[in-house]
Amino acid sequence: MKFSLSREVLLKPLQLVVGVVERRQTLPILSNVLLTLEGSRLSITGTDLEVEIVGNTDVDSAEEGGEVTVSARKLLDICRSLPDGAKVNFSSSDGKAQVVSGRSRFTLATLPANEFPSVDNGESNVEFTVDAATIKTLISATSFAMAQQDVRYYLNGMLWEVSANKLRAVATDGHRMALCDAECVIDIADPTKAILPRKGVIELSRLLDDEGAVSVAMGSNHIRVNGPDYCFTSKLVDGAYPDYDRVLPKGGDKLVLGDRAELKQAFGRTAILSNEKYRGVRIMLSNGAIKMVANNPEQEEAEEEVGVDYVGEELEIGFNVSYLLDVLNVLKGDGVRLTLSDSSSSALVEDAADSSAVYVVMPMRL
Q: What is the set of domains in the chain, with CATH numbers?
C-alpha cells in the first residue's frame, strides 16, 4: 500500500485508537494497529480483543490500496515527533513499512493483516441515534462509582438500560451507587440492559465529542457506537447486574438543603485529618447546621460546621468522605439535597434543581 497525507490528519485517528492498545501483550499483533486503505479512505484499527476502535480519515493521495499492521506506539511517536504541517508518505512491501517525511525516514517491521483479530459484532437487538454529549454526560455523572477490581466482575462496568425514549446509566461498587437518566428518541417495546466493561466506558468517554450525534447498536454480547470519524465496538460483560431499585432508599424523612461548593470545601478540609485507610467522617445534623468531625490514629481531629436548610430531629451518622466528595464533584448545580432517615440507612444525594441523577452512599460505623 502507498499513500501520503499531512501529519495532523494521520495523528487524529491514531490518537483515537491507541488508547485501547495495551503496551504489554501476550499476542504481538495486539500491540499493532491495522491500517486499511480503500480508495482515498484510510481506516486505523486498534483492539485488545475486548474493545475495538476504528478511526477514519481521508488521505491526500492514494497510489495503492491494501492493509498492513505496524506498531501502534512507534507510529504514534514518529508522528508526534515530526514538525507541524509535515507531509507524511507511507508505503509498505515485503514485510516492512516506510514512513518518509522531509529528510526523515523510518522503516518499521510489519505483521500480516490477515492475522489481526476483530471483535465479533453479532446481531443488534436495539439501534438508536443520540447526541454524543448526552452519552458523555451519563458517563461523567456515573463512571466514578464503578468498581475497579471487584471479584463480582459485573460491578467492574456500567449498566446501560434502554427503554422507550429513555437511556439510563447505573454504576455501583457495593458501597455507593450513581444513577443518571437522559431522554432521547428510542422506539422500543421492552427495556434492554447491557453491562459495558470498565475499559470500554473509559475509551468511549474519550472518543465522544460535545457536539453531533452518534448511532448506537446493542446486541446480546456487544455494543457498537458509530461517530463521524470513528467506530467503537465493545464486548459486553456477561452477568446479571444487581437490582439497583432495591438499593434506592425509600421514605427518608430528613431533608437537608445546602450549598454544594460550601459543603464540598468543608468535607475536603475535614478529609485531611481523616483515617487514611477508612476515610471516615462523622456527621452531626441539627436544626440549621451540619457538623463534620474527622479523627485519625494519631489522635488528630478536624471539625467543620456549615449552615444548611434543615429543621427536624438531630442525627449522627458516619460516611466515607471520599464517596461524598466524588458526588459533590460531579454535581453541576449550586444547591445539593441530602435525604436521610437514620444512622444505619443510606443517604440519597441529588442536585437540588435537577433530579435526572441520584446518588446513594452507604453509611459507615465509626
A: 2-115 (3.10.150.10), 124-246 (3.10.150.10), 248-361 (3.10.150.10)
Q: Which residues is 305 bridged to in the sheet? A: 291
Alpha carbon distance 166, 185 (integer Å): 7
pLDDT, averaged per 10 consecutive residues of the chain (366 residues), comes to 97 95 86 97 96 97 96 97 96 96 97 91 89 97 96 96 96 97 92 96 95 95 95 95 94 96 98 95 98 96 98 97 98 97 96 96 94
Cα distance between residue 74 and residue 79, in whole Å: 9
Q: How many CA atoms lie within 13 A of 246 on its CB side?
A: 4
Taking the CA atoms of residue 72, residue 73, residue 77 and residue 79 in that order, the dihedral angle to the nearest 10 degrees is 10
Contact 145, 130 (CB under 8 A): no
What's the pTM value of the predicted model, to 2 decimals? 0.92
CA gap 114, 105 in Å, rounded: 26
